[in-house]
Amino acid sequence: MNGGRFSWFNATSLTLGFAFLYLPMLILVIYSFNESRLVTVWAGFSTKWYGELLQNDAFLDAAWVTLKVGFWSSTLATVLGTMAAYVVVRSGRFTGRSLFSGMVYAPLVMPEVITGLALLLFFIAIGLDRGVLTIVLAHTTFAMCYVSVVVSSRLVTFDRSLEEAALDLGSTPFDAFRSVTLPIIAPAVISGWLLAFTLSLDDLVIASFTSGPSSTTLPIKIFSSVRLGVSPEINALSTIMIGIVTVGVITASIVSRRRLVRQRDDEQRALHQE
Amino acid sequence: MAQQQKKTVFEPWEDPSEKPIIRFKNVTKRFGDFTAIDNLTLDIYRREFFALLGPSGCGKTTLMRMLAGFETPTSGSILLDDKDIAAVPPNKREVNMMFQSYALFPHLTVYDNIAFGLRRSSMPKADIPGRVEQMLRLTQLTQFAKRKPHQISGGQRQRVALARSLAKAPKLLLLDEPLGALDKKLRNETQFELMDIQEKTGTTFVIVTHDQEEAMTVASRVAVMDQGRIVQVATPDRIYETPNSVYVADFIGDVNLITGKAYPGTGEQVEIHWGEAQAPIRANTSKSLAAGAEVKFAIRPEKIGIASEPPQDAANVVQGKVLDIAYLGNISTYHVELPSGDVLKAQATNSRRISRRNITWDDTVWLFWTDTAGIVLTE
Ligand SMILES: Nc1ncnc2c1ncn2[C@@H]1O[C@H](COP(=O)(O)OP(=O)(O)OP(=O)(O)O)[C@@H](O)[C@H]1O
Ligand SMILES: [Mg+2]
User: Fold this and answer.
1) Is there a contact between B99 and B63 (Cβ–Cβ < 8 Å)?
2) Chain B within 8 Å of A165 (Cβ-Cβ)?
3) Domain that includes residue B356, residue range
4) pTM of the predicted structure, to 2 decimals
5) Which residues of chain B have a Cβ shorter than 8 Å from any chain A Cβ?
6) Strands B221-226 and B269-273
């Protein structure tokens, strides 16, 4: 609040805003520690649903699939997204540059249902059986544009003369990228990976289009079991996911904010005379 | 202007059997429709210490970047050792460049910055630490070896950049304003170090500088540039004593310029008529001039004598009034207004402590110079 001035209006709108955002999740978290099986009746504190969750093979399988998909798709998306960002930012003007960069970013605004459907049709057309692989590929395609946005915003402030200096000292272009550019933009690449991982973790729509019978992800599992009624187990599971996503997002922002700012500062100072 | 007199005569550009290490042949570089380098032809010889001098934006860095391989000429060719280097990528050229912006690697220590090029060369791994230490000592950075670039001062960063480019001892070293951020003492020391390195290793240096004194001190030849063109290439003393144009005369050092009309006499003598009621200036020139041609007479302030009595046997004498005196310690510059309204600057050394105490503001004085003291310029 500007100047630290306190007003009832500000306080009320802030409270309402946060309540709107977080109250539903708070209730979910509280009820995950409920003793009772009934989701709406509070019967005392217990962690037994977390225990039961560990016994539930269907959920554990889904969690494992989700983590696998998240890891591989975000890794692939980071590699491809970084490469795309590098090409868009670096190669200057080439024929079709704006078309290319537009195409990299288009999936950001594409409705998920359409992306999902398109991918489904594509996988059927090339005869790829749906399973973990298809989800990984699907998540890679939509996550790489997010990575690319994060990385290219870092690359535009990266001074080209550092790469030139590396080339001048005998590096090949690839070596210059690996030993100069990459270490300096690493914070952006890492936060791109974390963003991609988080996106993959909570995607329901695209995953349900591209998953097969043996490859149910957690969001799909939760969604389908909720249709049979909300159980405290689901609450517990959701709480864990909220935890993971929160940690991911906070880490990503800390990594990107603190190290990005500091490194940019370093770079600037290293480049210019006082 | 301090001038370093070389012991042996080093003048490969006078020797027709000598092959230049670098040849620019009609090189033009355009950025869009802006011409940064304009049909430039230039030879630089092995073991030269070649200085590029010129105002900001005249294309010095662009010239360097073409040698290093970061820009390709729009037309014309650049030869290094008789080979066209257009197709050779920067990492395959035996050329190292010290960037005007330093371009130090922010994530590496001073030590690793200097070792960067060596690790990518054919130097045996075991020899690298020794070479880096040597460079650190040379640039007085030993105690900063473990620091990152942002933890050292601006002048220290400049020395890291210098050390990094020197480390590989390349055939050709390009230094883009290498000493600008150093204080005078360190700058002088480093200048002599550079000259020393060059004597020892035989590297060819091309150096950009804004500091004329530096160019005069270190350079074997100086090129004065203007808007993408080279106006004059010559040894520092020739550039200073016999500039080929008003631009060069004005750019290097302090100069008095008098516009007049030339009337050639016998031999090399010429009389320059200027201002009403002024005796013509008597000068020498090897140029053949048409009678009445418009010329500029250029003379350095230190070549003009000043006296409070009319001198007897000087070729040129003018009378004037002291307008201003700039005391510079070892010398004083007198601004003297002539009856025509022109102001001439004359310099005199303050050899005695109360020297020329008799000349002060508003005094009537006589300025005098010989007929060989100035030069006649037509462009
Ligand atoms: N990549 C570029 N695109 C467009 N114009 C450029 C580019 N690089 C340089 N120029 C222009 O070319 C001209 C020469 O630039 P250059 O950097 O060679 O100047 P300089 O002589 O090194 O100046 P300074 O002494 O200020 O460093 C300038 O007018 C500059 O604006
Ligand atoms: Mg420059």
Assistant:
1) no
2) yes
3) 254-377
4) 0.81
5) 68-70, 89-91, 95-97, 99, 101-107, 116-117, 120-121, 148-150, 153-154, 157-158, 164, 168, 180-181
6) unpaired
